[in-house]
Amino acid sequence: MSRHHSPTVIDKRRKILKGLIIVCLIALCIEVGYFLNLQLREHFSIHWVSGTSMEQNLEDGDAVLVRKDIAIKRYEVIAFKLPEESEMFVKRVVGMPGDAIIIRNNRMVLNIGAPENFETVYTFQINAPVAKELQALTSIPEDSYFVIGDHVDVSKDSRTFGFVKKEQIEGTVQFHLANIH
């Protein structure tokens, strides 16, 4: 005895199967999207530049994509948060852990070359409280960085607040999207 179904029963089954496949695909897309969102948030963040301290490279209102948990190199732009400030900072790394320094009369000489010869140096005017705090040091501590804004005349940076600790750094700026006025 063969089992035959009418065309309307077969059409109903096909519609149900098609509906189940569509629901499963939508659920799969939602799960994949959720997973990607979690991964992106774990490894990246977005911040908006506020102020003029990084001009000409970053302008007020630009968006920056920050990659978390990446090795920091000299001259890279980093995003970090200071405990006493509500805003995130975006500055360029100039001084690395272990770099030799000399502090005299509110000036810091930063040696970025071989530690023994001071052939490649930067000199920065730093504020008196920072100079007093760092005066006894001969090198940048292992967990610290000296950062400056590209627009040095207006930048609030390590010359004002001292070294940035590694645990205060969120990551390095990987990409920036210019603000369209």
From TrEMBL:
UniProt domain Peptidase S26: residue ranges: 34-176
Protein's name in the database: Signal peptidase I
Regions crossing the membrane: 16-36
Family that this chain belongs to: Belongs to the peptidase S26 family.
Record's bilayer topology term: Single-pass type II membrane protein
Pfam families, alphabetized: Peptidase_S26
Domain of life: Bacteria
CDD domains hit by this protein: S26_SPase_I
Keyword list, A-Z: Hydrolase, Membrane, Protease, Transmembrane, Transmembrane helix
Recorded catalytic activity of this chain's protein: Cleavage of hydrophobic, N-terminal signal or leader sequences from secreted and periplasmic proteins
InterPro entries: LexA/Signal_pep-like_sf, Pept_S26A_signal_pept_1, Pept_S26A_signal_pept_1_CS, Pept_S26A_signal_pept_1_Lys-AS, Peptidase_S26
Recorded GO MF terms: signal peptidase activity
EC number(s) from the headed UniProt entry: 3.4.21.89
Localization annotation: Cell membrane; Membrane
